[in-house]
Write a structure and sequence with these properties.
Layout: E1 11-12, E2 15-19, E3 33-37, E4 40-46, H1 50-55, H2 60-77, E5 85-92, H3 95-99, H4 101-115, E6 122-126, H5 129-132, E7 141-149, E8 151-152, E9 159-166, H6 179-196, E10 206-213, H7 215-233, H8 235-240, E11 242-245, E12 248-249, E13 256-264
Parallel strand pairs: 5-6, 10-11
Antiparallel strand pairs: 1-8, 2-3, 3-9, 4-7, 5-7, 6-12, 9-13, 10-13
Helix pairs in contact: 2-4, 6-7
């Protein structure tokens, strides 16, 4: 008797390639870029519970631990695991707490307990406390991430290069000029990541760039900033770039940070 059951599509494993250009400073606690092929995108958030925020208002490591538990529980429900994350964001309401040496050590321990020694394209931003308030409470830290889980070809994201947050510091830890020069330096770094992935903005089928900057600073320098982005990514990608307000960054003197992702043609796939 003929078997009339529908054909089950083959699930394809996501392939991952860490991108570390030699001309950039050695990344510590993050990755500059990640090239992935295949997989279905899962968007994630993680926030400490209000009872943790209210009972431990200055304990960032515990708040991060709870937020990661929240995020990774959602990822597991979607069929993923911690190492399926492709892009990671930490938003903090008080960067001074994050910079404290003892807090950093504790945060490193929290990270290791969830991810081991694995890191992702990551950015860290300080936002105004009011913009992070929820249910009358301001968390010290909230998280968001994009993960890719194994999926059939017809659900695949194709080939993507995920970009970690970059700022205007060079490989020697020196700050590179005013905001326009910092943007140009960042774009050189992003271009280096794409080259490491055997690609460029010219090869992209789609590019999503995001800039995080003080709104007043952006307003005063908008034209020169967009020209600097267009110099490397083209005018269309500069015009399409999303700009978000940020109060500050881990490196106190940084004026701007950028990240994003670039979609590429997948060889052998129409």
């Amino acid at each position: 008797e003929e078997n009339m059951s529908p054909e089950i599509p083959q699930v394809l494993k996501v392939s991952r390639q860490i991108l570390t250009p030699t001309e950039l400073a050695r990344p510590r606690g993050f990755q500059y870029g990640l090239k992935t092929v295949g997989g279905k995108r899962v968007e994630l958030t993680g926030t400490p519970s209000t009872d943790i925020i209210s009972s431990l208002p200055t304990d960032m490591p515990t708040q991060m631990d709870v937020a990661l538990d929240d995020m990774l529980t959602r990822l597991a429900v979607a069929g993923g695991s911690p190492l399926d994350i492709a892009s990671f964001t930490m938003l903090v309401s008080d960067i001074a707490i994050y910079r404290d040496t003892s807090v950093l050590q504790a945060l490193a321990g929290v990270w290791k307990s969830h991810f081991g020694r694995n890191y992702f394209p990551t950015k860290l931003l300080e936002l105004e406390a009011a913009s992070m308030k929820q249910d009358g409470h301001v968390p010290l830290i909230t998280l968001s991430a994009t993960a890719l889980v194994d999926a059939p070809q017809d659900q695949s994201e194709g080939t993507t290069i995920w970009l970690g947050g970059q700022n205007g510091f060079d490989e020697k830890g020196l700050l590179y000029g005013d905001v326009t020069h910092q943007v140009r330096h960042i774009m050189r770094g992003i271009s280096a990541v794409l080259r490491e992935g055997d690609s460029s903005f010219d090869d992209a089928t789609f590019a999503s760039l995001r800039m995080f900057i003080n709104p007043d600073l952006y307003g005063k320098n908008q034209r020169s900033i967009l020209d600097a982005v267009a110099e490397f990514a083209g005018e269309q990608n500069a015009d399409d770039m999303k700009v978000y307000p940020a109060k500050g960054f881990f490196e106190a003197a940084a004026l701007v940070e950028m990240d994003g992702y670039v979609s590429l043609p997948t060889p052998g796939v129409d």
